[in-house]
Design brief:
The chain is 34% helix and 23% strand. With 609 residues, the protein is of the alpha/beta class. It has three domains: 235 residues, 4-Layer Sandwich (Glutamine Phosphoribosylpyrophosphate, subunit 1, domain 1); 205 residues, Glucose-6-phosphate isomerase like protein, domain 1 (Rossmann fold, 3-Layer(aba) Sandwich); 159 residues, Rossmann fold, CATH 3.40.50.10490. It is globular and about 75 Å long. The chain binds 5-amino-5-deoxy-1-O-phosphono-D-mannitol. The site of 5-amino-5-deoxy-1-O-phosphono-D-mannitol (M6R) has 16 residues, from helix 9 and helix 16.
Length: 609
């Protein structure tokens, strides 16, 4: 998946495109490029391997100037991250293209084009689109017609923006199951993979539908449906945070985002708790008439959002007594699902743009007999929020670090409120007690964050570690999974997570003095069993690092280190227990000197399958 930005204006677009790319790096950052039509209508471009800052430096050495241009930041799917594979791709030096997504039949199309004399110089699935456009242009089509003819031949989920030397006043774009948003300006127009990429130039946006052809010039935006009928579209106004991408004095975005969690939790709660702090209310977002009918929940998500869904499964079954299943979107979308009567489909996504989660949501809406669909999402303008019938916005603010932190805790908080809303309709759930704990949560998160020095010191133990084991039971298990994921993503240390009861069914064989075990120990009925599992680890020579509820009053010994976590209502404990594991992963990565905000091989938003 990649980031696209394009502009047509009456000023030099170079810096607009670079600023846009910087805001799109969450979609990929292994190579970048920019192409403009200069004042003589000649196509000019610069492409570099590495992040957008490398491209920016290169542009200082060889500045480009033009009033129309396209740019791209890449996350390689086909072909290594090299300059030659970086976008924009050209054909015959007269047409240029940027592309996000995957062209599934590119090999067949490549073969067809070869017969017409087109030879690809890159290993990408993109370059054939440039050649196909050139082919149709040579046959007499204009650029819009060439795009229309090309997209009829292409299979896959993708978005493209094209420009042509002989047509210096138009950009043509197309999207199919891949995001694109049009930014409307005054005597200038833009298009990008998402709205924040254009926040420096406009706050007026049009969200085109799938399979629309978009024709942009500096004065107008024209959108055509797949029958080539001109369609009307709504302009949406959106105000951005004043500085959504600043680090605010922290060394990394991830660090800033971890430390923002007391504030983001408060934001999530705002307006959802009554003034006297006794009741919760989300009926303005999802009506009680719907909630009352829910007899079953299917939760579908990916990555960290999937871990939030795992916690919610425990909650919904324990507190709301609603049978709940949880599944990763990439599996759900391809298997046959049985949907019991009155099932609510719940999907969770930070970005709202994850390709597998979008496809799963569409499947749930189109093919299955769900009571309704609900998305728990951080991005109000996202595809998933637009697609789902109901939404609960998590309000974490822009999350830049690839490793999700504040998005996760606000997802959990939102899901806890959803659980409580269902629980109070179904049985004698103690709402007042729950709300009291909710109100205390931001302060308790702050108390955990204040242990940063202690956790930093602990993290030095793992600077040269190759592998780690994370254990938990009940809701502590998804928290252990999430802690292991954080460590893997940013420190590149192999980490595995198990429900502690599974230890003796295999993983115990791994234990020796070189494999540290991290344990998530909450205050609940199975704590003794988990502590016994940890004894089994110690008696085989393993060291254990226990993140334990302070009420347990655990003590240290030569093989045991303890970090105490403040006591909180059982239901909210997972939200508190992930915080020290986020800090641990962060500090380990700092000591190992990895690229914390943009770890290798990853991207913030996974918009391809
Ligand atoms: O935007 P989403 O929540 O749908 O993204 C899902 C995953 O790609 C995401 O959570 C990923 O696992 C993060 N890098 C985890 O830190």
């Amino acid at each position: 998946m990649c980031g696209i930005v394009a502009a047509i204006t009456n000023r030099n677009v170079s810096s607009i495109l670079i600023e846009g790319l910087k805001r799109l790096e969450y979609r990929g950052y292994d190579s970048a490029g920019i192409a403009l039509l200069d004042d003589n209508n000649k196509l000019i471009r610069v492409r570099t391997k590495g992040k957008v800052e490398v491209l920016e430096q290169e542009l200082k050495k060889q500045p480009l100037s033009g009033k129309i241009g396209i740019a791209h930041t890449r996350w390689a799917t086909h072909g290594k991250p090299t300059t030659i594979n970086a976008h924009p791709h050209f054909s015959s030096d007269r047409v240029a293209i940027v592309h996000n997504g995957i062209i599934e039949n590119y090999k067949d199309l490549q073969q067809e084009l070869k017969e017409h004399g087109y030879i690809c110089t890159s290993q990408t699935d993109t370059e054939i689109v440039a050649h196909m456009l050139d082919f149709f242009l040579k046959q007499g089509s204009d650029l819009k017609q060439a795009v229309q003819k090309s997209v009829k031949k292409i299979k896959g989920a993708y978005a493209i923006v094209a420009m042509e030397q002989n047509n210096p006043h138009q950009l043509i774009a197309f999207k199919k199951a891949s995001p694109l948003v049009i930014g409307v300006g005054i005597d200038e127009n833009f298009i990008a993979s998402d709205a924040p990429a254009l926040s420096i130039v406009t706050n007026r946006f049009i969200y085109p539908a799938d399979e629309n052809i978009i024709v942009l010039d500096d004065k107008s935006v024209q959108i055509y449906d797949k029958n080539d009928k001109l369609i009307k579209s709504k302009i949406v106004d959106y105000t951005f945070d004043s500085d959504p991408i600043g680090k605010g004095g922290f060394s990394h975005y991830m660090e800033k985002e971890i430390f923002e969690q007391p504030a983001t939790s408060e934001q999530t709660l705002e307006g959802r708790i009554s003034h006297d702090k006794t009741t919760i209310d989300i009926s303005n977002k999802i009506p009680d008439e719907i909630l009352k009918q829910v007899e079953c929940c299917h939760i579908v998500a990916c990555g960290t959002s999937y871990h939030a869904g795992m916690v919610a499964k425990y909650w919904l079954e324990q507190y709301a007594k609603i049978p709940t299943s949880i599944e990763v979107a990439s599996e759900y979308r391809y298997r046959s699902n049985i949907v019991p009567k009155n099932t609510l489909y719940i999907t969770i996504s930070q970005s709202g743009e994850t390709a597998d989660s979008i496809a799963a949501l569409k499947k749930a809406q189109n093919e299955s007999n769900y009571l309704s669909t609900l998305v728990v999402c951080n991005v109000e303008q996202s595809t998933m929020v637009r697609e789902a019938k109901y939404n609960l916005i998590t309000r974490a603010g822009v999350e830049v670090g690839v490793a999700s932190t504040k998005a996760f805790t606000t997802q959990l908080l939102t899901l806890s409120i959803l659980t409580a809303s269902l629980a109070k309709l179904n049985n004698d759930f103690n709402e007042k007690e729950f709300v009291e704990s909710l109100v205390q949560l931001p302060l308790k998160i702050q108390q955990v964050l204040e242990q940063k020095e202690q956790i930093n010191k602990l993290s030095t133990n793992f600077k040269h570690t190759n592998s780690m084991l994370f254990l938990g039971r009940l809701t502590g298990y998804p928290i252990a999974l999430e802690g292991a994921l954080k460590l893997k993503e940013i420190s590149y240390i192999h980490a595995e997570s198990y429900p502690a009861g599974e230890l003796k069914h295999g993983p115990l064989a791994l234990i020796d003095e070189s494999l540290p075990t991290i344990a998530v120990v909450m205050f609940e009925k199975n704590t003794d069993k988990l502590l016994s599992n940890l004894e089994e680890v110690k008696s085989r020579g393993g060291d254990v690092y226990i993140f334990a509820d302070e009420r347990l009053k655990l003590t240290e010994d030569t093989q045991t280190k303890i970090i105490n976590i403040p006591a909180i209502d059982n239901m909210l404990a997972p939200i508190l227990h992930i915080i020290p594991l986020q800090l641990l992963a962060y500090y380990v990565a700092v000591h190992r000197g990895t690229d914390i905000d943009q770890p290798r091989n990853l991207a913030k938003s996974v918009t391809v399958e």
